[in-house]
Design goal:
Layout (H helix, E strand, L loop, with lengths): L1 H46 L2 H43 L1 H11 L8
Helix pairs in contact: 2-3
Length: 112
């Protein structure tokens, strides 16, 4: 009776060892698959490393251009407002505008 129990234990142990070996092989295959996928992703990231920089440079150029256009529009609007203010002042008080213009514009004196 004891011999039969020992044989069953040995058979069960060998089955467990076989199952454990199979599980280890499956785990090893899964780990290898994950490592390969990680290496592929790493290579893909390295190959695409320059693309965001190019997009960033393009975006930066567009922002710079937009900033320049905005500044030009602002300067144009300020100049137009200044011109309208001068025209309104001349129309409101022509004598005052004439006096201011006379003081600003240098007069040549031909006597000397």
């Amino acid at each position: 009776m004891r011999v039969l129990e020992k044989l069953k234990n040995v058979k069960g142990a060998s089955g467990r060892v076989h199952d454990q070996h199979f599980a280890e092989q499956m785990l090893l295959e899964n780990v290898k698959c994950l490592m390969k996928r990680r290496e592929d992703l790493h290579e893909e990231l390295i190959s695409q490393k320059g693309k965001p920089r190019k997009k960033y440079d393009c975006t930066r150029a567009w922002r710079r251009c937009l900033r320049m256009v905005t500044n030009i529009l602002f300067i144009g609007a300020a100049a137009a407002e200044f011109a309208c203010t001068i025209v309104a002042a001349v129309m409101a008080a022509p004598l005052v505008a004439l006096a201011i213009a006379a003081t600003i514009i240098p007069v040549r004196n031909n006597y000397f």
